[in-house]
Amino acid sequence: MDDNPSPQRPIRSYVLRGGRMGTGQQRALAELGPRYVLPYTAQPMDFAATFGRAAPVVLEIGFGMGDATAQVAAAAPERDLIGVEVHEAGVGALLRHIGERGLENVRIVRHDAVEVLREMIAPASLAGVHVWFPDPWHKKRHHKRRLIQPAFVELVASRLAPGGYLHCATDWQPYAEQMLEVLSASTLANTAAAYAERPAWRPLTKFEARGLRLGHGVWDLVFTRPR
């Protein structure tokens, strides 16, 4: 892996992985992808046209296999949700959830989240942004690849509507500490003295539940854009 990308190769917070997709994921991608997967375009999207209504929009970055995304969307039909993920298997898995649950308030963009925020999301247009369990990049020489960095947080802040929130969660304490430091120095305001309680509406993932049973910690951070 090249740890010193050239200016033409920006540092990414992810590494594209290979891997086989299940038949259900492949079928969902073929049948539902054309309707629910949005092409990346270098211009702000029209949320009302995309979803066919005017509603608060939340952006989720790195939704993995989409379990939590589907649960959040099903529990809050009055909100629209855009999931951003680079891995095809995850996109197929979320599409399968969409089909099984009949979710009409979810759309997917398979592209780099920084570019999506910068180019596809208009300033002050989002009700919220979720960054749940991003890659902690454990090794010190890889910390520059962590998604939660000052420039990224200010980009998120610029896309949040006044009163909008950024909700991060991690099970890696050193990353939680970095998140708290970065977010506390940003233009966003903390909703807690330090770390927040897990909101009841954030689903407990299987991985997270197993970690909690083993005594592992999980840290939530919820910051808002001042009104």
UniProtKB/TrEMBL annotation:
Protein name per its UniProtKB record: tRNA (guanine-N(7)-)-methyltransferase
EC number of the protein: 2.1.1.33
Residues bound to S-adenosyl-L-methionine: E60, E85, D112, D135
Pathway this chain belongs to: tRNA modification; N(7)-methylguanine-tRNA biosynthesis
Gene Ontology molecular function, alphabetical: tRNA (guanine(46)-N7)-methyltransferase activity
UniProt-listed CDD domains: AdoMet_MTases
Source taxonomy: Bacteria, Pseudomonadati, Pseudomonadota, Betaproteobacteria, Burkholderiales
Keyword rRNA processing recorded: no
Pfam families recorded: Methyltransf_4 (PF02390)
Catalytic activity, as annotated: guanosine(46) in tRNA + S-adenosyl-L-methionine = N(7)-methylguanosine(46) in tRNA + S-adenosyl-L-homocysteine
Family indicated by similarity: Belongs to the class I-like SAM-binding methyltransferase superfamily. TrmB family.
InterPro entries: SAM-dependent_MTases_sf (IPR029063), tRNA_(Gua-N-7)_MeTrfase_Trmb (IPR003358), tRNA_methyltr_TrmB_bact (IPR055361)
Gene name of the record: trmB
Reported function: Catalyzes the formation of N(7)-methylguanine at position 46 (m7G46) in tRNA.
PANTHER family: 3-DEOXY-D-MANNO-OCTULOSONIC-ACID TRANSFERASE/TRNA GUANINE-N 7 - -METHYLTRANSFERASE, PENTACOTRIPEPTIDE-REPEAT REGION OF PRORP DOMAIN-CONTAINING PROTEIN
